[in-house]
Amino acid sequence: MKVIRKVTFLYFFILIFKGVDAQEVKPLGIALENFEYPYPVDYIELNEQGERLHMAYMDVKPENANGKTIMLMHGKNFCGAYWGQTAKDLSKAGYRVIIPDQIGFGKSSKPKDIQYSFQLLALNTKKLLDSLKISKTSVLGHSMGGMVASRFVLMYPEVVDKFILENPIGLEDWKVKVPYVGIDQWYRQELNKNYEKIKQYQLESYYDGNWKPEYERWVNLQAGWTLSPEYRFIAWNSALTYDMIFTQPVVYEFPHIKAPTLLIIGQRDRTALGKNLVSKEVRKTLGQYPELGRKTKDAIPNATLVELDNVGHLPHIEAYDRFIDPLLEFLGK
Fold first, then answer.
1. What are 163-190's pLDDT values in tens digits?
2. Cα separation of 165 and 291, whole Å?
3. Which of 40, 117, 142, 183 is most exposed by smallest CB count within 10 Å?
C-alpha cells in the first residue's frame, strides 16, 4: 500500500536525498504485534470501565543486582521500545528496569470507549508494580510520561525512591492561553496523519532539522499504524489522551512532590500542545523549556536541574551520553 499520497516535488527530493524510502513503511498491528521490542514483553490483565484490557511491559533484570528498581515512562508519540539503550545501561549498572506501555499505547490494549485520566494510568502502573511485588522504585518520565509519572509520585509517594523528569510536557497550563478543541477535532487530526506529516513533525519539533538515520525507526512506528485497518481505534485513543493532557494539568501540584528530583531538560525544546491554535505572538510564549525548567526546579522541593544546550525534546535519543551520565550519577547518590 502506498504511503506517499500528496507530496511536493521538493519534499520528495528531500526524502530521496536523505536516503529515506517511505515505501518501506509496513502496516503495524493495533498492538504492534509485528514490531520488535528490545526485551521480552509480558502483560497484566486489567478490568476497567466494563472492558477487559491488557497492559504490556518489559521487565529487564540487572546484570549485577544492586537491589534497586527504576521504572521508565514513555511519551505520547512513543512506546516503551524507545528505552532500549537506557534500559541496557541501567541494567549494567545493577538496576532492575520496568518499562510499561500505558493503556492506549504501544503493545497495550486500545479501548473502544474509556474515560482517560492520569489517575487511571497511575493506578494501572501501581497495579503492575504490585503484581511484580515491587514496593520501592525510582521513576523516570519523558514527555507525556512526565505527566503520568508526576501523578504517580503524588499518589504513591511511599513507593518512590527518586524522581526524574526528562523534557516532560505539562510544565505549564496550556488552557490559560490555548482555546479548547473537542475530542472530535483531535480525532480528525489523527486520522489525517501519514508518513510525510509524521516525519516533518519530528524533524521540525524534535530535532530542529538535524536528521539522523536512527530516528527513522520512530517515524516508521507511527506511520505503520496509519496503514493498519484498525487505525481508527488507535486514532480515537490518541484523541482521548490529547484531551486528558490538555484538561488535566499537573503543574500546580509540583510543590507537593516529596522525592528527590532530577530535571534533565533539552534547552532547544519548544513543545507545547495547541501551538497551531494561537497567534504567532502567543506561540512564542509557549514551550519555553529553558524558562520552564528553572521554574519547575524552584517549584519542586529538593530538585536538581541539568540543562542540555542545543538538545531538543528527546535527549535520550538525540544526545544519549549527555542524558545517561547525569541520570546514573543522580541514581547513585
1. 999 999 999 999 999 999 999 999 999 9
2. 15
3. 40
Question: What are the strands, taking DSSP E only, across 6-81?
Answer: 41-48, 51-60, 69-73
Residue type, 21: D
Q: What is the pairing mode between strands 160-168 and 41-48?
A: unpaired
Cβ atoms of residues 146 and 169 within 8 Å? yes
Domains and CATH numbers, the chain: 27-332 (3.40.50.1820)
Say if CB 277 and CB 179 are below 8 A apart.
yes
- In the β-sheet with 160-168, what is the strand arrangement from edge to edge? 41-48, 51-60, 96-100, 69-73, 137-143, 160-168, 261-266, 303-308
- Measured CA to CA in angstroms, residue 143 lies from 113, 139, 211, 265 at distances of 24, 13, 20, 11
Angle at 289 between CA 144 and CA 195, to 5 degrees: 50
220, burial (CB in 10 Å: exposed 0-12, middle 13-18, buried 19+): buried
Alpha carbon of 59 to those of 78, 80, 127: distances in Å? 18, 11, 14
Instruction: Find, among 118, 230, 232, 244, the residue nearest to 183 by Cα.
Output: 244
Q: Which three cell numbers stand for residue 72?
A: 521508565
Please name the residue that has the C-alpha cell 466494563: 50
Gap between the Cα atoms of 234 and 265, Å rounded? 29
Instruction: Identify whether the C-beta of residue 118 lies closer than 8 Å to the C-beta of residue 151.
Output: yes
CA–CA gap between residue 153 and residue 168 (Å, rounded)? 14
Residues linked to residue 270 through DSSP beta bridges, in sequence order: none
In the chain, what is the straight-line distance between the N-terminal and C-terminal CA atoms, in Å? 52
Structure confidence by residue, pLDDT tens digits, 32-57 = 999 999 999 999 999 999 999 999 99
Count of residues making up the chain: 333
